[in-house]
Amino acid sequence: MPHEEPLPFWLVNVPRNEWPPKCPEFLLECGEKDRRIIGSPDSEYKRLSWDEVKQLIQTNRVDKFHRVPSDLRKYRQFTHRLVKEYGSIMDFIVGVRLGWKDLEAKGRAFECEEDIKILYNDWPYGIDEKIVHLVIWTKFDIEEDPATGDLTSEARRKVEEYMARTFYSRVNPEHVRWFKNWRSLKSVHAVEHFHVMLYDPDSEFLKEITNGDVPMCARTSNQSSKALDVSQK
Q1: CA nearest 139: which of 79, 176, 99, 86?
Q2: Number of helices and strands (H, E) in the chain?
Q3: How far apart are the first and last CA of the chain?
C-alpha cells in the first residue's frame, strides 16, 4: 500500500467535504501544544473521569486539563471572532457575558453579591459529561503569594467560606471541587476568576446559581453565522 502522508493539523476532525484549501486564519498562530491537540483525532481522546479531575486539582496539575481536539478548534475560531468583533476577549467577557459596566468592587472580597457572578465555562475541558464546569467571576482580587503564585492562606480561607455557603450547603461536598488557574494558564488576565467543578449536579440548582446562564458553546453551534448569538435561551 502506498504510504499516506499525515494530515496537516488543521484538517484533522474536519469532514473531507469541508476541508479548507489552506490553514484558516484563526489557526495560523497556534502554539505547538494547541497544534498537537487540534491535530489529534477526537476518536483517540479520552475524557477525564471525576476521580481523575479530583486528582489533578488536588495535586495542582490543572495544566493537564485540555479540551477535546475539535472543541479546541471551535474555541480558537470563537475567540478569533471575538477579538475582531469586540476588540478583545476581555471586552466581551466584561460587557457581554458579565454585563458589568465597570470592575469597581462594592465591598471587600466575597462581601457583596453584586461583585460576584457565576457562569458556565463557555468552552469546558474534555471531562466526563456528567461534570459541570462553572467559572466564578469577581470584581475583587483574590490574593496570591508573589513568591509561589498560589493563593495566600487568607485568600484560600475566604474562598472556602464562600464555597461552603454557596455550594457545600446545597451539594454533596464530595461532588464539588474548585481551583484557580496558574497565572500562565489564564486566557483572561484582567478579570479575576476561579473555577468550580460539580459532579452530576441538580439542574434546578444550576439554573438558580447561574441565573439561567447558557454557555457560549451551546449558543454558537453555527459558527458561520454573521453575528455572535449572545442572547439567553
Answers
A1: 99
A2: 7, 4
A3: 51
CB atoms within 10 A of CB 21: 4
Task: Report residue 105 as a C-alpha cell.
Answer: 468592587
Helix intervals (H) in the chain: 32-38, 50-58, 69-86, 89-92, 153-163, 203-209, 216-219
SS3 content of the chain, % helix, strand, coil (to 5): 40, 10, 45
Q: Per-residue pLDDT tens for 114-139?
A: 999 999 999 999 999 999 999 999 99
Q: Name residues whose C-beta falls within 8 Å of residue 130's C-beta, 6 or more positions apart in sequence.
A: 50, 199, 200
Distance (Å, whole) CA 127 – CA 220: 20
Tell me how many degrees the CA angle 73-16-33 measures, rounded to the nearest 5. 30
CB 105 within 8 A of CB 113: no
pLDDT per position as a tens digit, 168-209: 999 999 999 999 986 644 555 578 999 999 999 999 999 999
For the range 214-223, what are the long-range contacts, defined as Cβ-Cβ under 8 Å and sequence gap of 24 or more? Answer: 214/120, 215/119, 215/120, 215/121, 215/122, 215/123, 215/124, 216/78, 216/97, 216/122, 216/123, 217/71, 217/74, 217/75, 217/78, 217/122, 217/123, 217/124, 220/78, 223/74, 223/77, 223/78, 223/81
- Kindly state the cell numbers that stand for 123: 468552552
Q: How far apart are CA 150 and CA 28, in angstroms?
A: 33
- Report how far apart, in Å, the C-alpha atoms of 50 and of each of 108, 127, 197, 218 are: 33, 8, 9, 22
